[in-house]
Amino acid sequence: MKTPARLWVAGARPRTLPAAVVPVAVGSAAGYVARHGYGHIGNFALVESSHQHAPYTLATNVSAHGFSVVNAILALVVALGLQIGTNYVNDYADGVRGTDEVRVGPVRLVAGRLASVRQVKSAALIAFGVSGAAGLVLAVRVSYWFIPIGLLCGLAGWAYTGGSHPYGYLGLGEVLVFVFFGLVATAGSAYVQHPSFVVIAHHTFGFPWGFALWAGVPVGLLATALLQANNLRDIDTDVESGKKTLAVRLGRRQAGYLYVGTLVATAASICVLQHYRGWVLIALLALPLAIVPVRLALSDSNGRALLPMLATTARLQLAVGVLLTVGLLLVRS
Predict the structure, then answer these.
(1) DSSP β-bridge partners for residue 57
(2) Cα distance between residue 48 and residue 25, in whole Å
(3) 89 pLDDT above the threshold of 70
(4) If DSSP codes are grouped into helix, strand and coil, which group holds residue 197?
(5) Quick check: 197 and 231 in contact, CB under 8 A?
């Protein structure tokens, strides 16, 4: 069976890709700031030195100049590969189980008889393979700790709907998405831009994990909101197929409240993040984009009527991600 390229692109579910791009952009900005702007990260103030000509120096085993474009690109390839691979696994696994037989929303390659199970499974493995190859290069360049972390991320992507006990069917998808596409992806992208340690006025500062992880909180919450929008739309068909997502377990109305609560928590986390970098508050300018999906979440609409939620949530996620990145890089005068 020969499947046109446009269907493979549609099967990769482009509207979900901001979940991979945003943490790399925000994390890279956070890493750059941590590497070059300690004097502007909350409590990481420069300590005045008794030596007039020794403001700060970087560890000699890492380049002290500029932004590592190569590391950022590698991190992006890792994240995109994991997201696309996870989407293809979801397509083939749900297709085999019959979960997608009456599904609305994105193209389903297996359920729609547009590609064979073997083809879609192979596409997933290729995507994970590309991600793994980029991750190995990143591990060699930065730290071999990225190898076990990468394997864990790949396993989480596969086990979402793949395997005999997929956690996506147990209502745990939101938790794992927050952890891996929020905290891990953002902090990891920050770490690859940061030296192993910085010496400031004879004081040694390690990687600012608190700053990097907190930068990943709004990112992870928005990725979670994207999954919630998807699962809200699919409640009726998931009930029929026995897929017990968190939305199914909560019910339509409570799941809608959870979606709104997730967006409120996102705004609150940005307000906390401004403790580290005040300009991140500009990310709140994207909040008007939440009006449409919030109205849909609080409405009585179901199924196909909720299709706009995924697209509008993706736009919100992308807009907040761009503004967060800019806010992190702006320096207070």
Answers:
(1) 199
(2) 32
(3) yes
(4) coil
(5) no
